[in-house]
Structure formats: structure tokens, C-alpha cells
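FORM 7B: Structural annotation worksheet

SECTION A. Query
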Amino acid sequence: MDEIRAADITGWKSLAIRCRRGRRATTPPRLSSPPCHAGATGMIPESELTPASGVPKLVDVEAPPADAALLAKTVVLKLNGGLGTSMGLDYAKSLLKVKGADTFLDLTAKQIMQMRDDLQTNVKFVLMNSFATSADTMAFFKEKYPALYADPNLEFVQNKVPKIRRDNFEPALWPTKPSVEWCPPGHGDLYAALLGSGTLDAMLAQGSKYLFVSNSDNLGATLDPKLLSYFARSKAPFMMECCQRTSNDKKGGHLASRDGQLILREAAQCPDEDEDQFQDISKHRYFNTNNLWIDLEARSPRFEVLRCLHFVNVTRI
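SECTION B. Predicted structure
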């Protein structure tokens, strides 16, 4: 059986409690959600939503570029927990070649090194890997980018949880290949993983305050010193970079407001009868790029109790 870390046990207990009782987990980090054991699916009908509006435009942002002191307090974090299974790969999606011999991670590494040269500051760089991507990713950096690999804080590994059977909500078993019984909880695990792994405390202890998060396959997501300065001056605990949806984005998730709270609705959370409105880009105009700015000092106390939306994702082992 694969080695199971204490953090994984915590993640499993949290998931099991949420699925069976729908109550707040008793082991930190505490996550509350509807009870899937009682039939809740996480669906968000159109009748509960108001389209998002009033999103500021980047061209209207007024702030000077971040100075060296601000950059020294900033961490660039890439979410790198996903495998390329949808493309027939059994390794990290970020190791897919995208330009000549360069993979997503090659180009990311080169961007980080170029950014450090351009800004004349050693901006911190961290990967959130999963149990499925850590070994391949770290071997890649060790071989090709030893200067980045030498940083002992280059990675932390997110939680892993067992896949759950639909019929009885017990862990799904596949004795001939135990590795497929597990999965990373997805990008939303960022906050629990930062806290549970000790990475959040370590970042704060090193004087870090601002975290810029993006997906490892988003090569357009680079740290913008002007946006960093804008975020710092705003005193906001969290900021999300959004884009206007086009016809190419109509099947992807969109922003909306529900009960006065800004939320993100994914396609898997949309009832079939609301699909036309879900895809109406004139109504739901914005999507989340998953480029996130987080004030670690402001968010730190709130990581203990998170109000997260969960939904059923049906798959086969």
C-alpha cells in the first residue's frame, strides 16, 4: 500500500465527515459543506444566481510597480497536482511538451529565472505538487534546473483522499493497482494544504506576506509588479484575476453572486435544464483565470475554518 501521511489521514477524516454527516470536520482544517450522504450534489441552479458585475479593468488600475521590499515579501506559487490523464498521460500534465522540446515546467522555470534577473530580486518560487506529480516534477528540476531544485522550500505536497464509492460512501478498492484508489482533492485543497503541511507558517516565518497563485499550465500567468503593488495597497485579503468569457469559454465555469456572496459555478454544478443560461456569455460574462492574490497575514487566521463548496464528481477507477 502507498505510504499514508498524517496529513492524508486528516484529509480523509475531513472528507468522510463531510460526506457522511454534512457537519464541520472535527480535525483541522475544518471544512463545512452540504451532506452528500443525504443526497446533496452541490448543484447550483440558475434561479439562485445573479450575474457578476462591476469587475474593475486592468487598464484602469493605478499603482506604481512593486519595489524590492514588496517583492521580497512575495511568493509565486504554481499549482502542479494534476496528471495529464485526459490526454493519455500518466505523468504530470506540466511535463507535456508545448514548444519544441520545452514543457510547461521548462517555460515556467525560465520565466522565474528571467523574472529574477529583470527585477533584480530573488522572488520566492514554490510548487504545490500532489502524490501523483511530486516524484516526476522534482526529478525534472534536479536534472534540468539544479539552482531552483536546491531551494529546500521548492515544493510542498497537497493532501490526498480516497475515491468514494457511490453506493455506500466507503473507500473504493482496487487491489491490483492501489495507487488508483487515491486522488488529490484539486486546486481548492490549496488552503488546507498550506495550513496542514506547515507551509503557511514557514512562509510567514520567512517574512512572506503576499502569495501569487496560478495553474502550472497557464504560461500567461506571470507576476505583474503593478498588480502586486495594487493588491498590497488595497489591503484586501484576496484578489482574483478574471477575464471576459468568449464563445470558446462558454462551457467553462463562470462567476456569479448568490445571497450576496461571489461564487464560482463550474459546469459540473449546473443542472441540465440550466445549461443554456450557463453558456450565455452575455449574461454570465466573467470566468476565473485561477490567478489568485492572497495576503497570507490576513488569511492566516481564516484558514482554520473554511466555507467551501463541494460537488459530486463521478468517475471510474
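SECTION C. Observations
Confidence is low (pLDDT under 50) at residues 16-34. Residues 6-307 form a domain with the Spore Coat Polysaccharide Biosynthesis Protein SpsA; Chain A fold (CATH 3.90.550.10).

SECTION D. Sign-off
Analyst initials: ____
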